[in-house]
Amino acid sequence: MNPNREKIGRSQNLDLYGLNISNTKKDYIVDVDGKEYIDFLSCASSLTLGYQREDLVKAFVDQCQKVPHTCTVYTFSPIVGEYVDALLATTEIVNPKVLFGAFGSDSIESAIKSAQVFTGKKKIIAFKKAYHGGTCLSLASSGFEGLKNNLHLPDYFFHLDYPDSDLYESTLIAIEELLKSGEIAALLMETILGDGGVIYPALDFYKQIKSLLERYGALLIFDEIQSGMGRTGKFWSYEHFNIVPDLFCTAKGLGGGYVPLSACIGRGDVIDAMNNCQNAFTFSSHAASCAVGLRVIQAIYEEKVLDNVIAASKIICEEFEALKDCDLVEGVRGEGLMLGLALKSEKSLGPYIGKICLKNGVYVGYYGANNNVIRIHPALTVSEESAREGARRVVKSVLEFASDPQKYLADGNFKSFFTE
Length: 420
Fold this sequence. Notes:
Aspartate Aminotransferase, domain 2; seven-stranded mixed β-sheet; Aspartate Aminotransferase, domain 1; alpha/beta; 2 domains
């Protein structure tokens, strides 16, 4: 570990790989020794357009030279208005409005507070194995109980089994029973479960859940922090399911990985339910960040980035076919470039395979309840060459582990990300 890392609190300093990055190229990160790695993690899914984007840097610098920031409680910058128009044009929500922030956790807080004030109700339905953030409300709403040890968090969240194909009917029944109490303000869920292992809900669940919530006067909140901004091949992942939420939260790729930026987007009547300064932050609507965010949206359309997501995803999945006869591999999950290579094991294998991937020159993550899903989230602009070569290096690493698991399992010096 770099000795300076020890000065960062351990809750933000897992140092899962012990890797020190000193430079980048378009699809690559470069460590302090000059070794290059194809980046299949993209800053935890936040690097929308890849590295070395001069247009994003220029957007930031140009705005800083004019007005870097104005606190919107008092004043307003035209670039913020331009960005609001571009951002809200991406959603099918009728008469939408937005609450800005700096990171995903605060967008979740904005959505929960908006729902509570609008409905006059307090309690929230959420799901096990979902991750929504590290602030008070966002962590309380998350479904990884191990992250909540020794913390005194709000206790008005009900955590149900995520509605995959096996649990769909029982989850719906449980939701309606909670709604009957008349105390539920909203249901909060990741549109596609991310850190829980890239798990889909049953399609029929989405067909029924919105009408069920409306019947009982509760709102639907989608967490699009990881799955939004084109990562799944649609601008917002909820578009895959033909449903429009009342509110949704986005961050990560919103600022392209170059600036911290988040947004809670939703029905104007819900967003406006809170009074003055109930959701104000000094750096919300940060002008220079909004300039970068605007350029990200423009580039997604101008460069046909969503088409590239679909093409790169196809290449990666084709290369992973080489693992179809590997007993260790369950299969590939996900949409677009929100992919997970699921492993079959009761042991936590992700950290070991992740380390082998680094040796072979590809940078991946791992997640899922037992860290047994390899996280494949390259930048949305990843080239065909990098997508193919990166996938081949992952395949090589998995097969290398599978050929002699005990060789790697003997080294227990690996860290896990989440605990249940």
